[in-house]
Design brief:
It is found in: Cytoplasm. The protein is an alpha+beta fold. The protein is built from twelve helices and 14 strands. Strands 9, 10, 11, 12, 13 and 14 form a six-stranded antiparallel beta sheet that branches. Strand 13 and strand 14 form a beta hairpin. Helix 1 packs across helix 12 and helix 6 packs across helix 7. It starts with a strand and ends with a helix.
Length: 310
């Protein structure tokens, strides 16, 4: 089998770390693993050295927007992860949030606006309307992407223009969300048995107060508590919500829901990731370790399921 990692997105280095860790974990349970980059040589490799299955450990860009998955589907290569069509639905954050809201799942109020709107209608007027509608503080993030690249909390109106410019460096559309104070939690979902199941919720305590790119990938910058330090009823609701979001978006094999539990104990979904990180500071491996599940054994079961589908 083969692990795909790297690619050309902003998250290339994180993906390479995920791929290396996953490959080592799979070798640790006796699997023969090749590590391949997602580059111009990939299709020829898949044709001439066809693996039994592929695990997509790509983050951002083509690895999560369905592009690589579509190529694997075209070539008939079984792979661990979500189908191309469902990847596209989850990748676009405003689309996914609209689906959550329609299904009655809580998600912070938001607006998504392309760069052209600010240019054509006047940035100041649009920003003022945004603050009037959503209030402050605001969470700004690219409408597509991961690892919190370009995401930031804005507490003062005067800081909005610079924050918008920073965010637009990663995407053409900005998603502005009402910032929700509370406990930030991640819940991974895996389909390694007869039914999809949710792993123990992981509470994220970033020392800088915001779980940004630096906090995610700098050892010691964030403290993780697993299971999260919340009531049993809230923990159960988190797991039920993650499963509901996974099914609603049509995801497969593995996903991770990022959410905030507000002061009233409500679970507010921030986004769902179709290719969770697998680095030493990532959340899915933390949750798996807490329940005593070996990462290699977990993904070996997912590989077996992909092969059976193929």
């Amino acid at each position: 089998m083969a692990v795909l990692a790297g690619g050309l997105s902003h998250e290339r280095e994180v993906s390479l770390r995920s791929g290396m860790r996953l490959a080592a974990a799979l070798r640790g349970v006796g699997m023969s693993v090749r590590e391949w980059d997602a580059d111009a040589a990939l299709i020829e490799r898949l044709r001439t050295d066809r693996p039994d299955a592929v695990v997509v450990a790509l983050h951002g860009g083509e690895g999560e927007n369905g592009s690589v998955q579509a190529v694997l589907e075209l070539l008939g290569v079984p792979f661990v992860g979500t189908s191309a069509a469902a990847c596209r639905r989850a990748w676009d954050k405003p689309t996914a949030k609209a689906e959550f809201a329609r299904a009655g799942l809580d998600t912070p109020d938001w607006v998504a606006l392309p760069h052209a709107t600010f240019r054509e209608l006047g940035a100041r007027g649009v920003l003022d309307a945004m603050v009037e509608r959503l209030g402050l503080p605001l969470m700004l993030k690219p409408d597509q992407g991961g690892s919190a690249l370009g995401a930031q909390v804005v507490t003062e109106s005067a800081d909005l223009p610079a924050a918008m410019v920073s965010c637009l460096a990663y995407a053409d559309t900005v998603l502005a969300e009402r910032f929700v104070e509370g406990t930030e939690v991640a819940v991974s979902v895996v389909e390694d048995g007869a039914e999809a199941r949710a792993l123990p919720p992981v509470e994220v305590e970033a020392k800088g107060g915001v779980y940004d790119y630096t906090a995610r990938y700098t050892p010691g910058a964030t403290t993780f508590h697993c299971p999260a330090r919340l009531d049993d009823a809230v923990l159960a609701t988190l797991q039920e919500t993650a499963l509901a979001a996974h099914r609603l978006l049509g995801l497969r094999d593995v996903s991770r829901m990022d959410a905030v539990v507000d002061a009233a104990g409500r679970v507010q979904i921030l986004e769902v990731n179709v290719s969770p990180g697998l680095t030493d500071t990532s959340l899915l491996p933390t949750a798996a370790a807490t329940e005593g599940t070996d990462l290699g054994a977990l993904f070996a079961r997912l590989v077996d399921r992909a092969v059976a589908r193929g």
